[in-house]
Amino acid sequence: MDSLLVRIKSRMFIHAHRKALHLLDGEYGSLVTGRSMDFEDLRSYVAGDEVRDIDWKATARHGATLVRRYTALRRQTVYFVLDTGRNMAAHAADGERKSEVALFVVGVLGYLAVRHGDEVALLSGDAERTIRLPARSSEDHLERVLRSIDSAHSLDSPLSDLDRTLQLVARTVRRRAIVVVITDDAPLGPDQTRLVRRLRAQHELVWVTVGDIDPLRLAGATAVDDGWRIPETLRMDRRLTAELTRSIEEDVAERQTTFDDLKVSHRRIGRIDDVVPSLLHLLKARTRA
Amino acid sequence: MGLANAWILLGLVPVVVAVIVVPRLARRRRSSDAGVPVAHTGRLTRLPGYIAAVARMRGLSIAALLVVSLFIATAALLAARPVITSTEKPAKFTRDVVLCLDVSGSMTDVDIDVLERFKELSEGFEGERLALVIFNSSAAQVFPLTDDYDYIAEQLEAVRSSLDGTGEFGDAFGGTLTGEGASLIGDGLASCVLTFDRTDEKRSRSVVLATDNDINGTPIMTLDEAGAFATSRDVRVYGIDPSVTKPGDSEDSAEFQRVADSTGGQYFVLESADTVPTIVDGIEATEAALVDDEPKLIVSDQPTLFVALSIVLLASLLVLAWRARL
After folding, report:
1. DSSP string of B91-159, one letter each residue
2. CB within 8 A of A218, min separation 6: which ones?
3. A186 and A56 both lie in a single domain
4. Which of B143, B156, B280, B315 is nearest to B206 (CA)?
């Protein structure tokens, strides 16, 4: 079997001509360290400090010699929190499987994290299972993460239950980490909003939504949760399709507003080709926040 | 209206079961290999327009189901062959009557009455065939057995008019005087019996013989011989005799009566010219009674209504199926 990571990397390099990859690299760095670090980590010069570490501009402003403290050695942990339930085996907004899009998101972000020396951990689950992989910083480990996600996603998987996984994260991940939640268009109720707020307080929260396909877009659509085959007649019903399209657009906009209000970085991705540009956009928006 | 193959309706039950159950099973089987798996169908089902759309769909489906059931029922009825059964007396259609008229001078009035009455009767005929043979010293066929009643009426009228002197002479007597003598009844009757065709078919055959049995000359066949010949051909002879007022008054009439009876027919004496219609009606009634006892069941298919109905149903079914994308 091909290495999943190799496949993801090759896809990433397809995007290289859009000058996205190296940009991603840079933007990821800022995600790890944050903009405010420079000022917080300045301290007075003490004997023995490297001269090249002196922040000359700050020293000029301050009057006393200030040294920039490096945080490079601080290892971040990136938790990938996924839904491995049946819902993720359904189609994404543009016809690919949502699980494939999600896998690609994990692959790209995980690869960036590993390249920065950060650790990658997996905490995913559904109504019945919990899949947990410890934090490690190696491409082999990332490959393991990808494979366990890939094998968990199937149409025969248990039903989706993201709340359960999110609560598990809130309860068990003590150390501050970067939590990347990858879900589908599951609606956010008040309970979920509360949970997101709590996670945001605990961790650096990045939320990636893999957009769901319009249920009336393709013929032969079957609901993954109960096997309901959507009748062809409904698909031909112009009034209904128009209403559904409008309603989905409203939902998407509302979702973005919800995350904006919660100050959580969020991006909705409909297909694999959009992953790299969307992640770039996501990370960039974060640095400005 | 009845059904010729009603058992097909019983066969309909498995067909209906197959039509209703098999697609259901097939659908169940199909649902396992989900075509396009989609999640969060709640986004669709919670729409207010969804209820209306489902109601529309359900209406169409019910209508389609109704039309399908009606169509199957109609097709089954059609397959069961809707028929109309009627009892007919087919003997009517296999009945041949030969009018055998003696056209010697003494018989003219009686002949006219017989022809008049048969002309009237022929209007009510349905399937019977009629022939007219006239004879004097020889027999001549005016028209052979036919069921062309217009032609019969025309011919009867022509002969009648020439008998009462208003028409042409030849029509009544042409060919009847080629032999020697007059009123050769045995020859006349034998000729009349020979008029019957389709001897291999089982038909009701009767001769209405109007004569005074006043032989003048030497016939080839005597009346007895002719009667035996008629019996051998299964022909009944109905005699009308104007020469006497009571059966058996003369030797001639007694012979006539005997011959008529021996063929299974009847013998009537003519008391006055007015009684001819009565006698003819009597002959008709007797003949009818003879053949009446075997009514036959006539079965005729009546598919028109159901064919039209099934075409209409099929058309509306196609429209519905297209609308409902069934």
Report:
1. HHHTEEEEEEEE-SGGGHHHHHHHHHHHHHHHHH-SS-EEEEEEESSSEEEEEEEE--HHHHHHHHHHH
2. A91, A95, B35, B36
3. no
4. B280
Q: What is the DSSP letter of B216?
A: B
Question: CA dist A184 to B5, B45, B89, B203, Å?
Answer: 62, 18, 85, 92
Q: 0.90 exceeded by the pTM?
A: no
Degrees (nearest 5) of the Cα angle A256, B41, A180?
40
Q: Which of A101, A156, A192, A240 to mutate to test the interface with B (most CBs of B within 10 A)?
A: A240
Together in a domain, A177 and A132: yes
Q: What is the pLDDT of residues B20-62, one digit of tens each?
A: 778 777 766 555 455 788 888 888 888 888 998 888 888 888 9
Residues on chain A bordering chain B, Cβ-to-Cβ distance under 8 angstroms: 86-91, 98, 155, 160, 184-187, 212-213, 215-216, 218-225, 227-237, 239-240, 243-244, 247-248, 251
Q: Please give the CATH topology (third level) of the domain spanning B90-296.
A: Rossmann fold (3.40.50)
Could you tell me if B51 lies within 8 Å of chain A, comparing CB atoms?
Answer: no
The answer to whether A234 contacts B53, with C-beta atoms less than 8 Å apart, is yes
Which ipTM was obtained for this model? 0.71
Residues of chain A contacting residue B35, judged by C-beta atoms under 8 Å apart: 218-222, 229
Chain A residues with CB inside 8 Å of B47's CB? 240, 243-244, 247
Q: Where are the domains of chain B?
A: 7-25+48-82+302-324, 90-296
Could you tell me if A58 and A139 lie in one domain? no
Q: Which domain holds residue A257?
A: 4-29+75-288
- Which phi and psi (to 5°) does residue B235 adopt? -110, 130
**To which residue do tokens 């005929």 refer?**
B125
Residue type, A82: L
Distance CA B140, CA B144 (A): 10
pLDDT digits (tens, 9 = 90+) for A179-214: 999 998 888 888 889 999 999 988 888 999 999 998
Nearest to A236 among B37, B52, B325 (CB): B325
Mark whether A197 and A57 lie in a shared domain: no
